[in-house]
Amino acid sequence: MMSACSEDIAQMINGGKKEFTATLAAPNKGGTRTVYTEDTQNNKIAVAWKVGDEIALVHNGVKDVVKVKTVNADGSATITGTITVGTNGEAVTAYYPAAAIELNNDKNPVPAAAYTANLLAQDGTLSYIASNLDLRVGESTLAVDGDKATLASSVSLTSNTAIWKLTLQDNAETPAAIKATQVSVIKDGETPETLAGTSTLSTATSTVYLAMPPMSESEATVAIKAATADGTYIYENSGLTLAAGKYYQSTVTMAKAAIDLSKLTADYEAQDGDVLTGTLAGNYKISIADGATVTLDKVTINGENSSDYRWAGITCAGAATIILKDGSTNTVKGFYWDYPGIHPAVGKTLIIKGTGSLTASSNGYGAGIGGGFDVACGNIIIEGGTITATGGSNAAGIGSGFRSNCGAIEISGGTVEATGGENGAGIGSGGGGGDGSNCGAITITAGVTRVKATKGAGAPNSIGAGGYGGTCGTVTIGCTLDTDGNPVGGTTGAISQSPYEYPPIAATAHTLAASVVGDVVDTDGNAYTLDATHVLPSGVTAVAMVAYKSGSNGLAIQLNGSPVEKEWDDAKTYAEGLTVVSGGRWRLPSKADWQNMFVGCAVSGDASAGDTMNPIAGFKAKIAATGITWQSVGYYWSSTEGEGGMGAWSVQVNLGDSKAAAYFDTHSTSSERNVLGCLAF
Predict the structure, then answer these.
(1) Are residues 356 and 222 in the same domain?
(2) DSSP 592
(3) Domain limits for position 449
(4) pTM of the model as a whole
(5) Helices and strands, counts by H and E, the chain
(6) Which of 48, 185, 224, 455 qualifies as a cystine partner to 459, CB 3.0-4.6 A?
(7) What is the secondary structure of 326-379 as a DSSP string?
(8) Nearest CA to 653 among 640, 635, 677?
(9) Do 35 and 57 fall within a single domain?
(10) Backbone φ and ψ of 624, nearest 5°
């Protein structure tokens, strides 16, 4: 960000006479010749002549020097001296100060070596520019009359540089002043000498004055680098205009320069505002200072598993925020096997956000992000980014490591995939060991893009407590957060399904012939497999559940039947009158249909036949998984007549028992029972 204003820094020479007398008129008053007076209100630099100032007049390959004799009340100056005889109309160039210009071997004027050196060794002050870099140039012609000479026309002396006042600030949400100790200006990657060199400032300051050569918008990108006590800041501008003799004021918003890990030669603690980049070339400890916000931009840390390097890939010294730069891919792996990929400090909070990606893992018993083997960690908040975290043996992907404690875990944004090692939850605690492995509450809000958690072998949960004695606080998924950060709404409880994904994915439709027991069926005869991570697509209504399959054929029981009980004949009419769906037809289920459906849904230990089928736990679980709630005890008609034409068979389905049961009996056809259709396909 840059704003700039300008004002001419010029002085006038008017015609004089040869012994040589002339008048110099200054446009501004005030100050002395070696000190500029800054007029920020009017965006200009005020200057004044001083008795004894020397002016060089270069004409026809010679350099003459004249001096200011008097400074008049109106700011003009009378200059006198003698010059080499010239011809009438001869071109003349006036320079101030005279010592700043010299003639080369071809008798052409060039800046003196001392002046060039001064340009490349500025100290960032206005007084330095006034004393060392005030080179002014003007053009006119000589009017010669005998032994006297004058200037045929007035001439304006204009500085050959621009004066650029820089006010330096960082790019924080609330910008703060940058106290620079050194400032350099570089054009399109060239050495600093092409512009204003490197200014070593007399004191650390956020206000810097530079004398700059003229530049136009068509020229290359200009970069400003400011060295400070906590790192280097950079600003770039590709449309910069600096005109000779102009004064510019700019507020420059600068970004922290990246720290290249490939160039480190020792451990490094990243400071607030640091940007880390590159591949760590040595076995150095990379940490983040307490309270610092650090950006990762294409970082690779592959820690070596050696007891000489007992630290994580990135260690947080206290509260820390990691920003994953947009478009960046970052990989962080811990060093010695006891340690995690990224370690949040105990009792503090690590926040990870941004839009880049991060892959975090350990070399043995540590979490991808969290704790390690007997290495406790603090709280973890993930607000954005694409995160892949893999835990080592007995460690969670995100959470605690083996025999260690972890703080609370909150995921409110981004795409997160966490996989636990043996006995480790994907998100939660690791394997407990003799001393236990614990983590605090786990909260996954409705604002996430996607979270996928996979438990390790031997772990009971993909989200929650790990195995081998691990424990965990309350797991809340799909909530919002109140102003204090507490979960509101959502569902609670550990997740045992693995892998588990949130939010659930819209299930894909398939044919009845390709369905499996437990699939739900919509009004068009499409089947969908539902589980904890798959739901019906928007606008689709489940009307039946596949309860029995034999090859490509099977039976699906209606989920919501007649709203009122019916006599047997009316029950058959109701069921057969249901809308036919593609690939099947509706009917009232026979006694055998009911039995086949109970067996088709059976789990180990369920009954396999008979008028009393106890238990039917699998059928109960399948119905519950559809999200439809049946009455705890219901009596349902079958289409099968009783023996000898006596009544018809019905079934009592008792879902209120812990494992559920079904009891078949005959009843008069005039009795009223519940009615559920059966889709045969």
Answers:
(1) no
(2) H
(3) 266-502
(4) 0.69
(5) 5, 60
(6) 455
(7) TT-EEEEE-SSTTS-SEEPPTTSEEEEEESSEEEEE-SSSS-SEE-BTTB---E
(8) 635
(9) yes
(10) -60, -35
